[in-house]
Amino acid sequence: MARLLFLFVFLVPGLAPAEDGPVVPGSLSVPELVESAQLRLAQLVALDTTNPPGNERALAEAVVADLVFSPRIEAEIVGPEGPRASLLLRLPATTHTRSPRKPLLIVAHVDVVGFDRDAWTTDPLVLTERDELLYGRGVIDNKGMAAAAIELLRHFDRRSLKRDRDILLLLAADEEAGGKVGTARLLKLRPELSDVALVLNEGGDVRIIDGEVRYVGFQTTEKLSRTVTLVAEGQSGHSSMPLPNNAIARLGAAVADVSALTWPMRTNGTTRAFLDGTAATFPAPLGDAARAAADAPEGGPIPDDAGTVLAADPFLNAFLRTTCVATMIEGGVRANALPGRVTAKVNCRLLPDEDWAAVLASLRATAAPYEVAVEGSETPKVSPVSPSDGPFFTLAHKSVRRLWKGAATVPFMSTGGTDCRRFRLAGAPCYGILPFPLTAEDERRMHGVDERVHVEAFGQGVVYLHDLVARLVSGKLEGVEARGSGRAPGRSPAP
């Protein structure tokens, strides 16, 4: 406790008085909040919600059992009979106005991707602290945010902190498998979940570069995911008599050529604003290339020399172009038998305005010479972009400045998919955050081996989420749906 008290009183500037008023609670409560969030994270990590099969109901029931000492927090487990379920928590407002304010909805999915236990250096289902790092499946995707949000609600309740609107917390099922039994089902059963002031979900970034938080990105849009199946059929038979139309050989050649396809680099409103605000944070020559991309016309080509530099960075390459990559391959029954059918999965991540029909046509044309079919999915629905020039960004920038004074506040496009897309399609402004400061290397551990977060970063993320939510429920969000405030999209408000 003493260590945490020192950490947050002296290292987190948000605990000192500021010109925009105190929002984070008094310093003596901060270590308790962080400690309770870490204990909650240990509980959530230990509950195996690997999807498939998910089994999120067991987690929901465990959380509800702990809320007996928080009677003002309403809890409802939503889902059919069986192991798949989401948990909806509601903490009512403490003050009321003549015109009731729409609630704030926080969403954190609690299912996780699978893991190779033998490849980890710790037990993925045990929160393990080693060298000031917390290891465990889901610590950053997305049980860390879920733990922080649960304890945030309990903290607001215990201390009777002022809130002019209800706070809803949805611990969602099935996000890692597309959300069909999670948010997709919930928005059909409970359409009022889209009638909120805004949604806070995963999908943003608090980026550490050279040991400092250099920018905080709030997701306002995301790339679209579409998976196709490459199918090669051939004559089956005994491997002792090879045939010229071997299905595996043809599929392999087609996958190689499809994997070599590239689409042009270009910016949209969100990515151009992001690069404009963050170019100075990247080391040379990456920073110069990012500046050139930000200065290029929106939607137009990025200069070739800048594009070459940007393409060498895995994040910025994916950030600025549509990508397709092979992820699974299946076929064959025995080592001594020729397969009659083999398949490969190729996952495409499309820029929001990409023409999926044209991408699909390119994939088919590339595979056709090898007599490999490409089975595609339906045309995707393009979701709206959440505003980046209104009250939310004004309040968010204050929270960022309070904890990380020199960091830029920018809109962000996720290269992966989140539940935000469904909420935007349902009409709710949705903003993605990842509250914990991370290096690019640690963020790439998401879905991978030894997922982890630094102890200090976890604590800062808990404080940051608390500060942000406290601002959002203080009655200053009216008009968040409006898109015009006079500022250029994505630029931080003046300090």
What is the compact description of this entry?
With 495 residues, this protein is an alpha+beta fold.
Summary tags:
495 residues, alpha+beta, Aminopeptidase, Alpha-Beta Plaits, 2 domains, six-stranded mixed sheet, four-stranded antiparallel sheet, 18 strands, 33% helix, 20% strand, disordered N terminus, disordered C terminus
Question: Order of strands in the sheet with the most strands?
Answer: 1-2-6-3-7-17
The overall pLDDT average reads: 89
Please state roughly what percent of the residues sit in beta strands, choosing from under 5%, 5-15%, 15-25%, 25-35%, 35-45% or over 45%: 15-25%
Number of domains: 2
Number-wise, the strands total: 18
According to CATH, the fold-level topology of the largest domain is: Aminopeptidase
- Please give the CATH architecture of the largest domain: 3-Layer(aba) Sandwich
The percentage helix is 25-40%
CATH class of the largest domain: Alpha Beta
Task: Write structural notes for this entry.
This protein is α+β, with helices and mostly antiparallel strands and 495 residues long. The protein folds into two domains: 2-222 and 383-472, Zn peptidases (Aminopeptidase); 224-375, Alpha-Beta Plaits (2-Layer Sandwich), CATH 3.30.70. It is 33% helix and 20% strand. It has 15 helices and 18 strands. It has helices at residues 2-10, 29-46, 56-66, 143-158, 183-189, 247-259, 269-278, 286-295, 304-311, 314-320, 356-367, 391-403, 420-425, 440-443, 455-472; strands at residues 74-78, 86-91, 104-109, 128-130, 133-135, 167-172, 198-201, 205-209, 212-222, 224-233, 237-238, 323-331, 337-338, 341-350, 372-375, 408-414, 430-432, 452-454. The strands form five sheets. Strands 1-2-6-3-7-17 form a six-stranded mixed β-sheet. It has a four-stranded antiparallel β-sheet with strand order 12-14-10-15. β1 (74-78) and β2 form a beta hairpin. α2 (29-46) packs across α4 (143-158) and α2 (29-46) packs across α15 (455-472). It is globular. The two termini are 33 Å apart.
